[in-house]
Amino acid sequence: MAVTLLLAAGGLGAGVFGALLGLGGGVLLVPILTLAFGLPFREAVAISLLAVITTSSASAAVYLERGVANLRLGMTLELLTASGALAGGLLAFILDERLLAGIFAAMLVYVAVSMARRRGPGVDEQPPDLVADPVDASRPAIGFAATLGGPGYAVRRLPLGLALSAFAGLQSALLGVGGGIVKVPAMHLAMGVPLRVATATSNLTIGVTASASAVLYLLRGALDPYVAGPVVLGVFVGATAAAHIAHRVSLRVVRLLFVVVLVYVAVQMAGRALSAVSG
Amino acid sequence: MGRASGAVRDPVAGAVARLLSAGAIASVVLVALGVALMLAAGLRPTSDSGPDPDPASILADAVALRPAGLLWAGLLLTVALPTARVALALAGFLRLGDRRASAVAAGVLGVLALAFAVARATS
Question: Can you give the residue range of the structural domain that contains B80?
Answer without folding.
Answer: 11-122
